[in-house]
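fwd from M.: "can u put these together and see what the complex looks like"

so here's what she sent:
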Amino acid sequence: MAETVVVCEVGPRDGLQIVKAIMPTAVKHRWIAALADAGLPQIEVGSFVPAKLLPQMADTAEIVREAVKRTETSNPNLTVVALAPNLRGAQAAYEAGAQRISVPVSVTEGHSRSNLNRSVDEQIAEVGRITAWLRAQPRHVPTEIACSTAFGCSFDGAVPVATVVRVAVALAEAGADAVALADTVGYGNPLEIKAKVRAVRQEIGDKLYCLHLHDTCGLGIANALAGLEEGIRKFDSALAGLGGCPFAPGASGNIVTEDLVFLLESTGFQTGIDLEKLIAARAILREGLPNEPMYGNLARAGVPRTFRRAA
Amino acid sequence: MAETVVVCEVGPRDGLQIVKAIMPTAVKHRWIAALADAGLPQIEVGSFVPAKLLPQMADTAEIVREAVKRTETSNPNLTVVALAPNLRGAQAAYEAGAQRISVPVSVTEGHSRSNLNRSVDEQIAEVGRITAWLRAQPRHVPTEIACSTAFGCSFDGAVPVATVVRVAVALAEAGADAVALADTVGYGNPLEIKAKVRAVRQEIGDKLYCLHLHDTCGLGIANALAGLEEGIRKFDSALAGLGGCPFAPGASGNIVTEDLVFLLESTGFQTGIDLEKLIAARAILREGLPNEPMYGNLARAGVPRTFRRAA
């Protein structure tokens, strides 16, 4: 029996929030339905932020409600994830029916100020308020707190291991159900991935759950392999590598879901994802964002005849 | 002192032989000069095959002679490599002044017949003739014999470990100075890379020297990482991932030299290559092949500010 790796498709959130064009709500529904139908176990469908800051995310409550219907129909294994940067957003996510809430906490002050308009410690305190509020609600909604810029920051440069460990420990103490390390700008390399995963795990154990990787410098899938080798069993990724990095012009976006799933399945892990259906879902993305670059080598070449999915 | 990894730029051979357009000889000269100037330790500059089969390679003798001049001027560490599929080609490569000769030997009968019009064992015998002839010449020119389709074949499908080991052992016995494992069609994955490198090394030790990888399915750089972790210290790659795979329409080509060098230098290996100069050499490639797709994430995003080259 093959070991399972969880893939969380973040294109509808991390991809769409960076591209300038706004995908129509109806296309978002169809795209997310296609992703659910392909077997994705987690989809981060949007973020609860003010519409005037991110008009691409204005319809997130409606998107969450529609996505939750998929868990009762085409994909009972699906968990619908929403991002919330603060308590108000988390409350809105909860009200909309989100089944898991991700919260970003920058580990560098430069990125924290720019992205959240708060210091690192202020955002850690906000996580404490979010987890306390969620625990008081009747429906159980776990949190996953992402340590943004854990592998380098376009403002503050290189990030010491100790900085990441300090924030991860503080998040565990603030009640995070799971912690992720995020290579927000995509500067990380496999050596650094391994060192930081090992150091954080030494302090908070399996509470370190996920790696969120970008493919800015072409090392994204290699970084995923490094995480896998260190025991990470959840990864964020985006169909067609949608998105980019607001601080690295020309950068490609998240690691490509299709290539990640190919890596996982062909090295003996089980994802529950149908590669052919996943590739087919690119057509809806193309329809919704006609002018956006779409990445991914597997989709261009096709699934090779030697491919065998994990047992 | 950082450990050295040898990068062999194969774009002028493996890239150019697959694209339909013919790069003018003068542009080839300038491109190879720029690559030499960027510090590449090996450049495979062309192949000695009949011009009617591969008109892109008709000027290889002239290209070799010009490239060898770079070893006396801008890059004394450069080794000029040429590919030869048979004894006649190896003799022409030697006469032109090639300093290292690579020879392809398919491990699968389907690819061997299609690519070389010979059986696997007939080509192994040809390698024996090549190494014997070269050893009888006054100038020492080492051979590197590539086991093509070692990680899957578009004709014969999956390739057992034992098949690769048999051919690699036969090549060592036939006098190969070095052996490479080539993922010719780009179907390999990190698990398979590790298993085959380990199995071949168990039989022929450090005579297994190089991995030649393609990025067909998006796992190219991850496969390089897997090879590195198994102790491989030479990789073939192509600037901008030039080329493709004649048996996988839409496939991207060799792994991208810029991204590979970034992987190596940022994980503490020394390549001797100047990343900025390497990226600048793309402009000459673009000029020589105006309509060819050019890959590579690092070049698109730029070298990140956190990058530190190996000491």
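replying to her w this: Chain B touches chain A through 47 residues (CB under 8 Å).
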